[in-house]
Amino acid sequence: MKKTAVYLNGSLIGFHENGNDFVQSVKNKRRKGDLPFEVSITNYKEANEVHLNADEGRAMRPLIVVENGKPKLTSDHKKMLKSKKLRFSDLLKSGVIEFMDAEEEENAYIAVNEKELTQEHTHLEIHPSLMLGVCSALAPFPEHNSSPRVTMTTAMIKQSLGFYASNFKLRTDKNSHILYYPQIPIAQTKYTDVIGIDKKAAGQNFVIAVMPFRGYNINDAIIMNRGSIERGLGRSIYYNLYESEERKYPGGQKDKFETPKAETPGYRGDESYKYLDEEGIVEPNFTIASGDVLIGKTSPPRFLEEVGEFGMIAEKRRENSEAVKPGEDGIVDTVLLTEGQGGNRLTRVKTRKIMSPEIGDKFAARHGQKGVIGLTVDPCDMPFSESGIIPDLCINPHAIPGRMTAAYLLETIASKVGALRGGNVDATPFDGETQGDMESALKKFGFSETGTEELYDGVSGEKIQARIFTGVVYYQKLHHMVSKKIHARARGPVQILTRQPTEGRAREGGLRFGEMERDVLIGHGTTMLLMDRLLEQSDKVTELICSKCGTIAVNDQIRRKQYCPLCSSDSDIQEIEVSYAFKLMLNELIATCIFPQLKLGDKV
Questions:
Q1: Is residue 220 annotated as part of the catalytic site, yes or no?
Q2: Which of 105, 166, 237, 327 lies 20 to 30 Å from 287, alpha-carbon distance?
Q3: Can you list the domains of the chain with their CATH numbers?
Q4: Per-residue pLDDT reduced to its tens digit, 456-506
Q5: Catalytic residue among 220, 333, 381, 570
């Protein structure tokens, strides 16, 4: 019989006569406590290999050990755990529970609950929801959603704005958002309390109506009630940080916080320095806009000083202030003057800006149902119920069946019941309140058990000829806000190397016209538009070309002469318009000993 190869942390350490026996003996020793519980072992029978892993960085989770179709965790263990006579670590040492990583799980047959247990099963879940991570365990009823939506939920819970730290006023984080009125979800899981997210909430309970609204919530767009926004729904505050340090340079030179003088190279103009005090630092509570200097600073010259008019070396300091970035504005919140790591003076200026929801801002429910605001509507034009309740948000009905997020509908009913009952609803994965319980509770409160209501059109006042599904859903405001993304430019800075417009909003860059956009214009035959985008508005340059040998000619400004450096001809020099990137490529080819020649012809 062929021997089984044994690997430890990916390295071959030897061979064993019988791989199955070896795996079982390692597992038995681990369950007895002879081996650390972090050691995992996996048997790859097809490859005749056994892999032992004891390295760090592996995600592990606890499971109940099953032998002969019966779990080793008994009712006596549960009683002793409740009375605190037994600890979780005791169960681990006695082999009742063991930790498994993703690799060892390949050899396990895990039952979700005790009713499913058969003789083949090797392990049992402590609770089905323990298969989920921290973020997905916060989602209500995730077992009713398709798995990609649960994955999206976990990603967006991390992006939600809330109350991230109680000392946010004292902190100097680079970027931070604080939600004005954070709320605890009505439909919440048991993990909300365990994780402590209820003390640092990151969302609000919205009254929603699942209905289209004149096409403005097409696809994933959402309609929001302007009255709710004005009352503070979804309002947040954005903190931004600017900092500057008085650095020291070789030769005893250093930076200095001050208001630069008019003769300083790089002076921005009097208007830019209007908020600075005598120290050259802005004071709190000033309303600042793009281009305003917050920390005035001058630096020594980058190169050696030039000799002045009387033979003296005069230090010409340059402007190096910290100004508000393009497209940013706000109010100066806090100014901090302290020392950096090297003992240098360090200034930090924190600005704040109130961010009320506007068209283009992103919101998401805890079911991967993300969308941007398509329209904000006056409350008088919004649909309303018989009792006068106006929804805060309208979501398109088509967003739910295609995504298979049935849990969105369950949360709507559950939160509606919780709002009427005046308490939270248990929406723990695999273990929450059932649909039947919630439907009967709605009926008891005098509402339709289907969760639908009759709504009236706010514009015409007529009854809408359909029953509209309404309730409460916990929505999160995400930090993708349109005011931080909106960007346009006409003229602006260009890169020194390629002479093409810079990239990115922060650098006042142009909007990239890529290869696929180019293909569209070629497909439509719009040649002049293509030329305008990729030449006129980009890096057009007029170059001199020798029509004899096809090389780039020289324009001698001093001698006022144009000639070819190769054939010394000055008679056949032609001006052509090319992209500067093309001219740069020719120069780079010449540098690699490749001689490109341009053949000139008449325009057709």
A1: yes
A2: 166
A3: 4-126 (3.90.1070.20), 148-235+359-477 (2.40.270.10), 237-355 (2.40.50.150), 540-591 (3.90.1800.10)
A4: 999 998 999 999 999 999 999 999 999 988 888 888 889 999 898 888 888
A5: 220
